[in-house]
Amino acid sequence: MAAKRLTMLIGQCLPSNIEGVAKVNVRTLKLDEILNAFFPENTTLEVRDPERRSKAGDTVLVQCIPETQRVGKLRHELLKVVYQLGDVRDPVTGLSTIGTQYRHHVDLEAKLAGKDGGVTFDYESAPPRGWQQGKKDWSHREPEVKWHDDGKWEPYQW
User: Fold this and answer.
1) Is there a single domain that holds both residue 100 and residue 58?
2) Which domain holds residue 43?
3) 11: how many CB neighbours lie within 10 A of its CB?
4) Is the pTM value of this prediction over 0.85?
5) Which CA distances in Å does 13 have to 24, 71, 84?
6) Backbone angles phi, psi at 27, to 5 degrees
7) What does the alpha-carbon distance between residue 104 and residue 95 come to, in Å, rounded to a whole number?
8) Is 21 among the domain residues?
């Protein structure tokens, strides 16, 4: 039976210093023929993202580019940002989550336990991610890469 090639992948963005290109860490399952079991395998893909829609930590959906439309070495393109870092929603109910629990369950539990005296974080009044871009948040900038230990900084050559 021939292996079916994946056309869409979901992964987490890594910092990238190439203009218009995002690095995405994708986890797939690889079959071990001897043990007849699947094991996780991480792959880092370079993905075309000309609008720079993704930041480090975002969960994104990646699509393979057909061979007729490929330019250079890029074989994938960013389709959409599924979740921003820290803003994960349950795909079935659409409710926001904190780890494995719903946000409103955590808030209700804190309120019932009497811990709501300003101790818990208020997600409703918090500003959206990116409001400090250019002030304290520099994740949109190109990261610096140090290649040698001689103290000289070199630009990334692709």
Assistant:
1) no
2) 8-85
3) 24
4) no
5) 4, 21, 10
6) -105, 125
7) 9
8) yes
Which of 48, 63, 85 lies at the terminal end of a domain, its last residue?
85
**How many percent of the chain have pLDDT more than 90?**
31
56: closest CA among 1, 117, 133, 127? 133
34-74 pLDDT, tens digit each: 999 999 999 999 999 988 888 888 999 999 988 888 878 88
What is the distance between the alpha carbons of residues 99 and 34, in angstroms, rounded to a whole number?
A: 36
| Residues 12 and 81 reside in one and the same domain | yes
pLDDT (0 to 100) of residue 88: 82
First to last CA, the chain: 38
Domain count along the chain:
2
In whole angstroms, what is the distance from residue 77 CA to residue 26 CA?
Answer: 13
Residue with tokens 């071990």: 32
Distances (CA, A) of 37 to 34, 40, 95: 8, 10, 34
Question: Does 77 lie in the same domain as 115?
Answer: no
pLDDT for position 158: 41
- Contacts (Cβ under 8 Å, ≥6 apart) of 98: 106
Region of 50 on the Ramachandran plot (φ > 0 left; ψ -120 to 50 alpha; else beta): alpha
